Amino acid sequence: MKLQFIKLLIASLCLFFIPISSHAQNLTGTWRLKEFNKLKGADYADAIPLTMKIEQKPNLITIERTNSLGDRDTVIKETLNYGEKVKNQSITKTGRKKTVSFEKTDEGSAWLKQTEIFQKEDTGKVQSLNKETFRLRPDGVVLSLLREYVNHEDPKGNNENFIVDATYEKLTPEQLAKETATGKGVNFIEGLNWKQIMAKAKAENKYIFVDCYATWCGACKMIDKYVYPLNIIGEAVNENFIAVKVQMDSIKTDPANIKLLYPLARKLETDYNINALPTYLFFSPEGKIVHKGTGKLDAKDLIKLLAKAKDSSQQMYTLFESAKQQKMPWSGYPILAKRLKEEFGEKELAIEVAGIYNSKYLNALSEEKLLTKANLDFIGEYIPIVKSSDQIFNLCLKKPALVDTIKEYHGGGWAEYVVNRTVNREEIIPVLQVAEKSKKEPDWEKLDVNLTKKYNKELATTYVLGERIAWYAKTENWTAYLKYLKPYLSRLDLNKINPTYLHWCAWYVFKYSDDPPLIKDALDWIDLLIAKWDKTSVWMVTETKACMLYKSGKRDEGIALMKKTIQMFPEVKESYQPHLDSMIKGQKIWLTFK
Predict the structure, then answer these.
(1) Phi and psi (nearest 5°) for 541?
(2) How far is CA 587 from the centre of its chain?
(3) Digit-coded pLDDT (tens) for 398-419
(4) Is-contact 242 319, C-beta < 8 A?
(5) How far is Cα 567 from Cα 380, in angstroms, rounded to an integer?
(6) Rounded to two decimals, what is the model's pTM?
(7) In what order do the strands lie in the sheet with 279-283?
(8) Which of the listed ranges 85-89, 158-162, 520-524 does the model predict with the highest average pLDDT?
(9) Distance separating alpha carbons of residues 231 and 208, to the nearest angstrom
(10) Which has more pLDDT, 73 or 578?
(11) Could you give the C-alpha distances from 548 to 428, 507, 511, in angstroms and in order?
(12) Would you give the distance in Å from CA 379 to the centre of its chain?
């Protein structure tokens, strides 16, 4: 009796501790997209539904999806029989056989929906496969969807194949009713000019919310149709904001109230860097710009944006002004610069904030405190802020080895990179701009004297040589280019030089030089590149080597290497075969390249 009781107790405990996730739960409910990630392949607007209404009954499931497609939504509803080895068959509009199955996965904790569309000519051969895995979390209110789409007619996946995953939240009937109720949406005012709008905002002590849109903008139309009419958005906007829509483009049929704000549209576009639509601008009751947002937003995200627009600790332009006036803790500058650059797309403002941080804070640090990975990474994000008078510039110039032990950089030489960018920006670019404007060759001797005076002769000679060959390449003065190319490259570490740049140097030697020693040097450059080039695209440099071998008199070697390149990389045959044919005929192929 006692033994039977223990067995029963153990069985009960085992049942109690079976994890919920071991069973594929019922998916019934209304599901709204929270977030999604592209894991592989192309971006498609309809890859992931915005919402899903699922009703799952024994052996029967109905899925209604709402997808975003430009300025409209598409709703697709399908009812499927499901179970092990149950396949729903139909014919697509293009006459192709289609089968859809829905069943538990092998692990039993999820559902797999699999759609196969077969080739029209061969109904036994799959053209495309769409696999969707639904997984309900134990709490029953979060649903994940992993979608993998493969078009077998596009084996490399260049155009259509993708993998995305998404997370959905379950809406209660009360939430759904509240969040979808319409009739008391945003009250956009019309017929007032900007001066009158500001006066109204000041009189009512409300912020100004400006929706910048265009007639061609699909995302703008989606927000007009599905977001602004919602009661919850009307409540968030109407009580706190004077809302106005400003059309950024113009068409012949625009009514008078749209044309009234044409001047405002141009001013906003110029003053606030509007390069994406929709853009949302927010002004204080006094008419001062305080915040900005961009992109297609759902109701939840728009409500968050509206809240930030009223919060001085979150307002983008308010924070920027605080940084300009140095009323912000120094620790906040890197964070604000990153937000301006990545969240708001305000690269120029980000550089301005970063410049203040560098000149007023980083320059005042001791060498030991300045040379940290965090500080150098920050400077690396905003190289245009560096000036030749800065401490970091002088350390890069005089102690490059020390700096390079802290800051990682592809190929090494970050300190040299900082010096190059700064010297070019301050000393060389202005000289080149004057020369281009006057259509005369730069005064190289004067530039050499100025650089020698400010830095040293070694640096001056290297920079002037580099700029001379760049100038001659741009002006296609190949005689002068070839004269200064080798002296310039002899001053550099070829292992650190940009591989693409070195490849072009070798190519210009092949095309324009008849000097055997220089051609031999260029072959050495190519061998250096072949040793370090990405093996999947090494054909770029092996073709150059084949051409140079041919021109140098080693014709058989050149032809053999060209044949080998085509054999190893069939995808280049169409473009390389004519060159090979010319080589076999003994033609001067360097004269045939454009």
Answers:
(1) -90, -30
(2) 46
(3) 999 999 999 988 767 899 999 9
(4) no
(5) 43
(6) 0.70
(7) 241-247, 207-213, 279-283, 289-294
(8) 520-524
(9) 19
(10) 578
(11) 34, 8, 9
(12) 21
